[in-house]
Specification:
With about 900 residues, the protein is of the alpha+beta class. It has 23 helices and 31 strands. Helix 16 runs antiparallel to helix 17.
């Protein structure tokens, strides 16, 4: 089963015929006349992009024209507009890709993203579209003058859910842009398809939701759209059912084309790093361009199978790919004379030790001990583990990435998400279950809402088990538009924020663009994204020129910290997470000098880290919050060092005296390992208070140092370790799964950050009305004399936020707290909930003039999400108070946002 085939695939023949009977009346069929051998290219936004996974329309196309031997290539990218199509360096122009695909029919899916410009943008849209059509009609991509089809956006599926948009404003604009496309088609004589009105009618008549987020169709939605598009293009109802075998062949063809067009290491193929990885003869570009050519050939082979099945012929069960070019197999650069990677201490050893022998090579801080939980020796599935988590039942989940750094054609794509269970209470893993296989480069994942959000590069999928067998049987391609320039630069460090947003990071070289209910969002050259499951909003949380961020965590009062892997830098997040519009970036990251022309700001400026870096790199990070660990360790910032010392480094964190922010200081490391293959990449505190560590366990590390096809890259080892402290009792794991809401709310009083984290995650999945009712009772019952009462109240505010509610009286109360950490947390909450708060300007103005500099900084940051002259007046009020470097930086960046730089 391929990477974007649904795990539970349905036969669509009957459904498609049924949907065809429900097509709303529309105008006469357009004049698209296909010739045998036509090459049809889809270009534009996510409506078209998703058709390579939900390919019901393409299945109808080949069913309607079984003898035409049509070739379909999907060149769409989410959030693409007529004149704004962001790509990583040297990806290739639209013309180059249309020429490569020899387009003779170009179908443009446009209008959704442009529609957010409203009435004011219509005239420019029409002008730009006319120019695009003229340029396309004048082109020859290899098959003569192409036909052009303009496909309108679908309607926006409104909702009476208070968390979602009613769709009125969106549909008003979508109707305008649909009419504009129709006008351009009339003026230029090209084919036009109106999908707006038929889908609006469809949504109004449907008893079930037909989108996953109001603007991207779900499986049923695409099944019903397919005959609408088919009849609009060609006229006449198609009554022949689609063969399930035909759809399966199209699935396979699109899978191979997708991984050719959206290769996950594009920057190491056509980008600058294509010149790296040389074995003296072949570099990355030579090796990987050959594989792209092989994928082209494999895709063409599958075209031929589609034609045969469409024509009613039988095809063999086994696909013959023996006609492709051979792979290029570079020589190793490991162990060669004067091996610079060995001299730099980056290499381990190709003689892998058994886990029992590795165990003897750990050096730990006094009082700590380490235990093996699982290894490839017991569980061969545990190959190249990269991320871990614990569910509400206390079970360990691990993502594995055997295909790293780049899936090779003709080989299985079989990265996994595993569940480990300890059945006898000795903490060793006894059972390994495969929750999901056929994954692709799952660099990160997070549990929530009854399932798992999984990086299936370059997308994020939501996967769910609905029958209790611990295997995903429902999958949704939830988030699309993340770039594919570099597999080890994303999508990583998934983390729920305390207020219910899901955060994840991606590194440099990548240019990502996503569609949202309120317009496209874009981020180039690294950043952190946030996604809200309840409202379907998605935004850039941090646009900063990181190298490769892989660490992200929150302290108990909601301050976030970021670890940038390659340079080993760690940042306090608040100053660099204010709002900026693409392509602007907050200056000061390690890559900023290179990207300053794109993102603005002083190219020489370097933003301060919150502690001096001694050694690089770092991957995962965590803040110590476990009564099982000694008191002196509480609140410390742990990071995984995967090359220099192969260690878990340890830093204390304290408030910066007399200024905003925090100061870190390196302390004794928690542990290190004298086995050079120990590669700690992720860590997390377990429900019992112990610390679990993911060991990638590989002699080689990194992308740049070796060819992507370096023969000594290991694809079989992986280990999970557990650190405990002698003489201190373990915690009794909190009961979370299946517990009543009142019991879960009581657990929000737990001293352990991770316990509260998992409780918030559980409560986020419960019915809003039940949680809100429980919160009202719980807050009223809090003991005002409890020293931690304000933190309990903050947890309540975060849970209201998680359910997209604001408790104004409680927010007022905590905003006036004597504890500056509580006040700062309230300002951050306001910045997230501006649309739901009726007096954000007043609250932010008060924060800007707070007595404490950290609260003032949060106020200045929050002001970046406002608009207008009043906002500028508010934020400049901070100059009436003492300033520091962090405050000045945040003020400068907020002014960039407000002045529209």
């Amino acid at each position: 089963m391929k990477a974007f085939r649904r795990i539970s695939r349905r036969l669509i023949g009957a459904a498609t015929v049924l949907a065809a009977c429900c097509v709303p009346a529309m105008a006469d069929a357009a004049d698209l006349k296909l010739q045998k051998g036509d090459h049809i290219c889809l270009v534009g936004n996510a409506l078209g992009e998703r058709m390579q996974v939900q390919n019901e329309w393409e299945s109808l196309l080949h069913t309607r024209y079984p003898q035409h031997q049509l070739v379909v290539r999907n060149l769409c990218f989410p959030a693409d507009e007529i004149k704004l199509r962001i790509r990583s360096k040297n990806f290739g122009s639209p013309t180059e890709h249309l020429t490569h695909s020899e387009a003779s029919v170009v179908m443009y899916f446009l209008g959704y993203n442009e529609s957010f410009a409203g009435v004011k943008g219509v005239a420019k849209f029409k002008t730009d579209l006319k120019k695009l059509v003229a340029e396309t009609l004048a082109a020859d991509y290899g098959k003569g003058r192409p036909q052009v089809v303009l496909v309108s956006p679908i309607a926006f599926e409104g909702s009476d859910d208070p968390n979602l948009s009613d769709g009125v404003e969106q549909n008003k604009n979508l109707r305008l842009y649909t009419q504009a496309m129709s006008d351009v088609a009339d003026d230029t004589g090209v084919v036009f398809v109106d999908l707006y009105q038929p889908t609006k009618d469809l949504f109004e008549k449907s008893d079930t939701r037909l989108t996953i987020n109001q603007f991207h169709l779900n499986d049923e939605g695409y099944e019903k759209l397919a005959p609408i598009l088919d009849q609009a293009l060609f006229g006449g109802e198609l009554t022949t059912p689609v063969s399930a075998d035909l759809k399966s062949e199209i699935d396979d063809k699109n899978f191979h084309w997708f991984h050719r067009y959206r290769a996950v290491n594009g920057f190491s193929i056509y980008g600058d790093r294509g010149l790296a990885g040389s074995d003296g003869t072949y570099n990355n570009r030579m090796v990987m361009n050959r594989e792209l050519a092989i994928l082209d050939q494999m895709t063409a082979t599958r075209d031929a199978r589609i034609w045969a099945v469409a024509a009613g012929k039988s095809v063999s069960d086994t696909i013959d790919d023996s006609n492709t070019l051979p792979f290029i197999n570079p020589k190793t650069n490991v162990g060669i004379p004067n091996d610079r990677n060995a001299k730099a201490g980056k290499l381990g050893t190709l003689d892998y030790l058994p886990a029992e022998e590795q165990l003897k090579l750990f050096d730990l801080a006094e009082g700590f001990e380490i235990q093996l939980i699982a290894s490839e020796e017991q569980f061969p599935e545990l190959s190249n583990p990269v991320a871990l988590n614990f569910d509400s039942r206390g079970r360990l989940w691990v993502a594995t990435m055997k295909s790293y750094p780049h899936w090779q054609p003709k080989s299985p794509m079989d990265d996994k998400l595993l569940i480990f269970e300890d059945t006898d209470g000795d903490h060793d893993a006894d059972v390994c279950k495969v929750f999901a296989d056929n994954l692709h480069q799952p660099t990160g994942f997070e549990l929530g809402h009854g399932g798992a959000y999984v990086s299936r590069q370059p997308d994020i999928w939501f996967m769910k088990d609905t029958d209790g067998d611990d295997k995903a049987d429902v999958t949704v391609r939830q988030i699309v538009g993340m770039d594919s320039a570099d597999s080890h630069h994303g999508i990583a460090a998934f983390e729920w924020g305390p207020g219910g947003n899901l955060y994840f990071e991606e590194g440099t070289f990548k240019f990502s663009a996503v569609e949202t209910p309120f317009g496209p969002r874009r981020c180039g050259e690294a950043g952190i994204w946030k996604y809200n499951h309840r409202t379907k909003r998605m935004d850039v949380h941090c646009t900063f020129a990181f190298a490769n961020p892989w660490g992200y965590c929150y302290d108990r009062w909601g301050q976030d910290f970021i670890g940038d892997a390659s340079p080993g830098f760690a940042y306090w997040a608040a100053p660099i997470t204010g709002h900026l519009e693409y392509p602007n970036k907050h200056p000061g990251g390690t890559q900023h000098r290179r990207v300053a022309e794109l993102g603005g700001g002083d190219p020489k400026y370097r933003h301060p880290t919150f502690y001096p870096k001694r050694i690089r790199p770092l991957a995962g990070c965590a803040i110590v919050s476990s009564r099982h660990f000694p008191e002196s360790w509480q609140g410390n910032f742990l990071v995984t060092n995967v090359i220099g010392e192969r260690a878990i480094l340890n830093h204390s964190i304290s408030d910066a005296e007399g200024s905003s922010g925090f100061v870190g200081k390196e302390q004794e490391a928690l542990l290190s390992c004298r086995d050079g293959n120990f590669r700690p990449v992720d860590l997390q505190f377990a429900p019992d208070g112990s610390l679990y560590i993911v060991d990638w366990h590989n002699a080689l590390i990194g992308h740049l140092q070796h060819n992507l096809r370096e023969p000594n890259r290991d694809h079989s080892h992986g280990r999970i370790w557990r650190v405990t402290y002698k003489g201190r009792p373990l915690l009794e794991p909190a009961k979370i799964d299946g517990q009543p809401i009142d019991a879960l709310l009581e657990l929000l009083k737990s001293p352990e950050d991770r316990t509260r984290y998992r409780v918030r995650r559980e409560l986020a999945a419960r019915e809003t009305e039940d949680v809100i009712a429980g919160l009202e009772t719980w807050v009223k019952g809090l003991d005002a004399s409890d020293p931690e009462v304000e933190h309990h109240q903050m947890e309540a505010l975060w849970m209201y936020q998680t359910h997209n509610r604001v408790n104004k009286p409680l927010l007022d109360q905590l905003s006036a707290s004597e504890n500056y950490r509580a006040r700062a947390a309230c300002v951050r909450l306001v910045s997230h909930m501006i649309e739901s708060i009726d007096d954000p300007n007043e609250r932010i103005a008060k924060a800007v003039n707070d007595d404490h500099p950290t609260v003032r900084l949060e106020g200045v940051r929050a002001a970046s999400f406002l608009e207008g002259e009043e906002a500028i007046e508010i934020v400049l009020g901070v100059l009436e108070h003492e300033m520091d470097d962090y405050l000045q930086y945040t003020l400068d960046e907020t002014m960039r946002a407000l002045e529209g730089e």
